[in-house]
Structure formats: C-alpha cells, structure tokens
Amino acid sequence: MKRLIIILLLIFIGFCQIEETIKDNEAYEDFLIAYLYKASQCKTQPSYFLLFPENVSKRWFNACLFSIIRSDCPFNEYPIICLKIYE
Question: Tens of pLDDT along 5-21?
C-alpha cells in the first residue's frame, strides 16, 4: 500500500511541474538574433515583428527560435510553432 501511495505521489508531482518561463525582454534579445540571422540569410523578412507576452514559455520559445533558424528561404512568415508561445 505504501508503495502504491509513493508511486501515485511521484506521478502527481510529475504532472504538477511549473513550466519554466523567461521574461519578455530576454526573449526579445534572443529572438532578434535569430530574426536578423534569417533575414540576412534569405534577404527577406516578415512584414511584422512578434510581440511576446510578459512571461514566455521557455520550451515553446526555444522551439520557435530553432524553427526560424532552420526554416527554408524565403523568410516571409514565422513558423507555425511560434504560435504556441501565446497559449
């Protein structure tokens, strides 16, 4: 019985992890590097700049940056994974 309670407690703790976030000012610094890199590589860029919420999910933000850097030219719009930042 004790083992079952411990296992259930560990599973519960695993689901209750707080998602790591970063502040928007830090996000803009990293985003600008990826944005300028891809814009200079492709010689094109989206007609708008992304605006981030105050606290950005670090996991989805990193996925967005990686997708921007790895995307093919022309760089006319952001990868769809970047929308996960706003959830």
Answer: 766 666 666 566 667 88
